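User: Run a structure prediction on this.
Assistant: Running it now.
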Amino acid sequence: MSARGGRRGERRLVSDLGPRIFTAFWAIPVAIFIVVQGGLVLALGLIVLGTIALGELYSMMRRARPVDLAGYLSMAAIVLLALYEERADVLIALVAAFPLVFVLALTRSRLDNLAWGIAATLFGVFWVGLPLAHAVFLRELPHGDGLLIDVLLATFIGDTAAYLGGRLWGRRALAPDLSPNKTVEGLAAGILGATATFWLAGLYQDWLSGLDALLIGFLVALAAPVGDLFESAVKRDLAVKDAGRLFGAHGGVLDRLDAAFFTVVVGFYAAVALGYG
């Protein structure tokens, strides 16, 4: 790389980091407040995020004519059932979502793409709604506030580590057909960063053993890039660059929470398997 190319790369790295730091500056305190409060405050916050995320997804899939209202209602029901009822009762909302989507679809003036619209609506309910329910499940565990914060910190710091690692040392493409900018080196940096973050957080939580923190952190670190690549695959299939514009150049809620939708699920089951449930 020439000196001029190196300077351009450094300037691009600094310019890209600015919006990331600005977003984190206000998003992290808000997220910590909601998680610490838990209960209905957390559920309502998740419903707001879920509504925005579903709106972004349904906008991208507008040609399939998803039934937006049915998706919003089903997602909200899933989150509230996760908070107030038994975990298995979330299945009630999923079962009820099928006839709800169908009935609301029948109220529209045109019935073309009915099957595609139902499929697109339920795709959003499963992709967005179920992870949000698992965030509630995780928060409701003993020490769930610490566990959920640890998972989110590991997810977002791991993402930043992957970004920096890819920018500074990336040479080999990870999945060029899905996300050309992601590299093997960035993946390794992200896994290391997320695992280390969870382990370091565990040092200040006497109820969480160091070995368990390493294991949960490593599993969360593996899940994060899968969630990232999943959203990249969806956007590429729909020929969309960013899911939304809420965070300016860094996209929308789906773009920011794609990894978290996978890590909160893995974090919950890992914590339960290790005896924290």
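Confidence is low (pLDDT under 50) at residues 1-6.
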